Amino acid sequence: MTSWIQRSPPAAVPRRCDVHSSRYRPHGLLWLLALGCLSACADETPVPTETGELSRSVDSEVSIFGAGVLPTTSADPDIASVELGVKFRANVPGVVSGIRFYKGSAANTGPHVGSLWSRTGQRLATATFTNETATGWQTVRFTTPVSITANTTYVASYLAPAGRYASTGGFFNGQGAANGPLTALASGVDGQNGVYVYGSGGFPTQSYNHSNYFVDVLFTYSPDTSAPTAPGALVATAPSPGAIQLTWSAATDNAGVTGYRVFRGSTQVASLSGGTLGYLDTGLAPSTLYTYTVKAHDAAGNVGAASNAASATTQPPPAGGGLSLPRVPWEGGPPFYAAYPAMAGTPWLTEDFFPIAYWGAYTDTESRIITDKAHGINAFLETYAGNASSAGWMRKHGIWNLAGSGAGGEAVGATFPDETDMWGGPGWDPWTGNYGGYDVCIPDDPRRCGFTLYNTEYQRLNNPAAFIYANVGKGALMWWGDRDREIALNGAAGPDSRANWRLGMVTGDIYFYTDGNIGAEAVTWFGIPASEVRRASNYGEVLMTNLRTASSAGNNGNPRAALGVVVELGGQATGSTLNANQVEGAVWSTLIHEARVVAYFSHVFSDTTANPSSTDVLNDTRPAYQATRDRVKAVNARVQSLARVLNTQSYVWQFNPKLSTMLKFRDGAAYVFAMQKRQYASGSYTFTLPLELPASGTVEVVGEGRTLPYSGSTFTDTFAAEYTHHIYRIVR
């Protein structure tokens, strides 16, 4: 939106009629009119039971937001005409009879027009507000109410011709708002919520900061008491020693099936969405008979009868190496790089090579390159101060340059302009040819030409087989909506046919340890509590997860590019500091979340005793960086020693729900990489092993000179700090 001020994150959204909260006590007649309901709070929400009975049988009119949910900003300084909306769903069919919106200030002048839209932008009804009050909830009813379908996204909106609308920034980040059968969707459920479009009115599709603009509906429904039918034709097959595949035909329901519950014997093992007609049950014992049933349920909580029972026996254990567990989607390693001609004849195509890269490497002297290589660096992602000898030095010392033309030699890749997402923005506006600074896009405010820039750079390269590297920042990883993020990372394979680029490697560079702004931003954009921001786990849990999700959009969960995260080597904000333990923790967090490259940022912008300002940490000989340089060298040596393991595809297995883990198998042994998840405290954690591994024996803790005896397919180890990680080796 036009207003780029930092807004306070919303408090948790209580239920509208929580009688224990003073915020949700009714306030006179206005509350009754706004909700269109004189029912007692205790009667407002149907109470589902297993048999499908409900506590209420009369029609009710409800809205999403109650009188206690108030905007943090009464009148945004924006004065442009804008249509503001909310995406919502009802879990039962019903009728929308009108629109309501909250006016925080008399400055939000009309005429205001309310509209109801389909998800694809068809206007279903509209009406002009009359008899408005100076502030508070305003209501208008349609001449003809509109019937809506259960579990379908609609958009309610109103036109604010003079701006000055009420809002709460970050409201829909990680949470929705629900009342009875209505839900305003959390961002990410169906794109971002809190939508708008500037102009004299129209379908709102843009979003900013997950903002709630306090638009609502008047919805009438009849409680649902009918249970779904039983799912049909349940079939069980055994694709591997440790898994059973189930398929079934859809159940039916008067309001729509919203989910299925899968039972192994009498134990429920899965809860699935209503559109899912299959399930892979994993972690099973080989050569074992299992029996299943499936039940359907609807949004009201009515559960139908069980399907037919289906049984299958898992396959015997594999005779050779490997595990029978499902695999994590894979997009890295030598077979991936072999698709790029510039990689031919390089170590990238061997099992013992893993990319360890330096972003911002200086190549003006051979001594710098020698030092980088001595620290384990084998690739440059961005280079500075190059000269006629730089390429030869790189070739001589075995460092592969992704910042070149992609034509071969040491230049195995080509680099797109850094952080285009942040200074170019998402969109197809014309690009002036400038980088960063001013006059980048036409118009230059708001900037929306980043996709045009990518297209232009790709055409200028004139090499469709090039291995292209791009680094993205807070735009693609934080501020943008899902579709824009997917366009940027997937290019020609993404959701916009205008995109022509194809990326071979993508990194992200949000610095959770030392960015001066990340504290408030992480709370607003990622929903991370302030106390959990400065943790190594965020580099993998947040950034790698976002990158993999966006890069795999529309590709059955398979990312289209090798992915990684750039880790800082020193403070980036004035006064911030970073120590060697934190650097190491951030690196392993990215690897545990399937990073295909280790990457470091060369610059330090803080100026502290611990992290003095530096342009090239690995070549900075001051004592302040000795520990960091030594640790980087040790980490890189460990990574390279495990290259054969890291270059194998991971298996799906949960050792402990409070740990982030990665499971691989190589040369007769399982390797378990682990560190605690962001939300949990340091301490001891118990691992549960897959049944295919020995139930008792000894666990080697790789690189730590210790072993752990175990039995009963479990072992326990301690994680001393938030950055602590361990690697375990278990011989089968």
Automatic annotation (TrEMBL):
SUPFAM superfamilies: Fibronectin type III (SSF49265). It comes from the Bacteria. Residues 230-317 form the Fibronectin type-III domain. InterPro entries: DUF4082, FN3_dom, FN3_sf, Ig-like_fold. Pfam families: DUF4082, fn3. This is DUF4082 domain-containing protein. It comes from Corallococcus praedator.
